[in-house]
């Protein structure tokens, strides 16, 4: 008795489960990225401790009341260190780690698997989101308990925090992915990424109030998302009287949304134009 080949084909097709979608694979890839990150204890400790140590140092050195604002200098540093910490776990972390993965040919091997390329980037976004939330919780806990920073009492303030957090973290993550193509090797990645990040912290008002920055320095810092993240988070966690410390004398939420949104779009374009799966040595 013979079997119709068409029947065999239809039976095999019916028994083959459908392949998972990009979002499902991206979520699974994100789980892998998060597990790998938290298994490296030294990396976890230094990632979360770095902004806390700097916050403690600056807040301990500068404790005077800022005239006409109703806040102390130490309170001013809490939201700016939070913005810096968020850029650290996105821009700096991705810029270095992806360059190392490219140099070690991890990206090349992943590209040869059936995994959709978009799933790899979704995995990185999930990692950045998880570490960003952890960074925010830790820094806000330290700021509220040790430096008397009041957490927002209204839903509107928390909503402002959420969109600044999402837009800022996304823009910085995309910028980090784009910058990861600059280092020629994994060994040089730290130097290539950390130096501009350090300069941006000074130009964006992380360590020095924006009113005290030279105009040219403030103009350069205004081109990048960190300055606007600092300004927006100060508006969320500091009283309205502290807006007098801003260069414009106001929080400028509309402008913050415009610049951060532009960086999300611009960062995506940069990624599409610059990202490479292979190192320059591999051709």
TrEMBL record:
It holds the Pfam family ABC2_membrane. It is a multi-pass membrane protein. The chain crosses the membrane at residues 44-62, 82-100, 121-146, 158-179, 191-208, 256-275. Keywords: Cell membrane, Membrane, Transmembrane, Transmembrane helix, Transport. GO terms for molecular function: ABC-type transporter activity. It is found in: Cell membrane; Membrane. It comes from the Bacteria. GO terms for cellular component: plasma membrane. Residues 42-281 form the ABC transmembrane type-2 domain. Belongs to the ABC-2 integral membrane protein family. This is Transport permease protein. The lineage of its organism: Bacteria, Bacillati, Actinomycetota, Actinomycetes, Kitasatosporales.
């Amino acid at each position: 008795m013979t079997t119709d080949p068409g029947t065999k084909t239809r039976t095999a097709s019916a028994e083959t489960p459908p392949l998972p979608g990009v979002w499902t694979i991206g979520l699974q890839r994100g789980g892998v990225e998060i597990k790998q990150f938290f298994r490296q204890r030294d990396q976890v400790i230094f990632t979360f401790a770095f902004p806390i140590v700097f916050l403690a140092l600056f807040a301990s050195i500068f404790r005077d009341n800022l005239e006409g604002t109703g806040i102390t200098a130490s309170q001013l540093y809490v939201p700016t260190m939070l913005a810096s910490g968020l850029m650290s776990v996105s821009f700096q972390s991705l810029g270095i780690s992806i360059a190392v993965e490219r140099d070690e040919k991890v990206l090349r091997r992943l590209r040869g698997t059936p995994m959709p390329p978009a799933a790899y980037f979704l995995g990185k976004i999930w990692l950045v989101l998880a570490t960003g939330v952890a960074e925010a919780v830790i820094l806000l806990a330290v700021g509220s308990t040790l430096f008397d920073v009041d957490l927002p009492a209204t839903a509107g303030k928390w909503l402002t925090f959420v969109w600044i957090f999402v837009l800022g973290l996304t823009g910085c993550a995309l910028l980090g992915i784009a910058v990861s193509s600059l280092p020629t090797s994994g060994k040089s990645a730290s130097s290539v990424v950390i130096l501009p990040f350090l300069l941006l912290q000074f130009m964006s008002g992380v360590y020095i109030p924006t009113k005290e920055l030279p105009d040219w320095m403030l103009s350069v810092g205004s081109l990048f998302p960190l300055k606007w993240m600092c300004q927006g988070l100060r508006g969320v966690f500091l009283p309205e009287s502290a807006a007098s410390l801003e260069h414009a004398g106001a929080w400028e939420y509309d402008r913050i949304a415009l610049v951060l949104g532009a960086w999300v779009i611009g960062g995506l374009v940069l990624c599409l134009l610059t990202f490479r799966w292979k190192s320059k040595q591999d051709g």
